[in-house]
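User: Some background: our group keeps a shared notebook of sequences we're curious about, and every so often someone picks one and asks for a predicted structure to add to the entry. Today it's my turn. The entry only has the sequence so far, pasted here. Could you supply the structure so I can complete it?
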Amino acid sequence: MTLTGGNRNDVTQLEPLLDKVPHVRSGRPGRPRHRPDMLFADRGYDHDKYRRLLRKRGIRHRIARRGTPHGSGLGRFRWVVERTIAWLHGFRRLRIRWERRDDIHEAFLALATCLITLRHVQRLC
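Assistant: Of course. Here's the predicted structure to add to the notebook entry:
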């Protein structure tokens, strides 16, 4: 995970994010995959530069275009991210970053993720 300042634009972190995608075992013989099949993005990523970057890496993309009406279908996937961020903001220490050290902030983030997962597992049982 890469931590950046709160006032950084998300688009600047697209390439480092793609570089950090871990190897994924597909259950099939052969090498594990190390790139996603497809990337869904909102209108903030609507630029030919990022489309070319994804095409060069062999990643299909679904990026909403600016100036077009809603209805691209991205909302079905985006709500998962928005919901997860809302759950993380339920923890006061993560709502505003007070820690100066990255490792402490990442530890609180990991702890919050474990607690969220535990709550959902308890609901299923």
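Suggested note for the entry: The chain has two domains: 1-73, 74-125. The chain has a mean pLDDT of 80.
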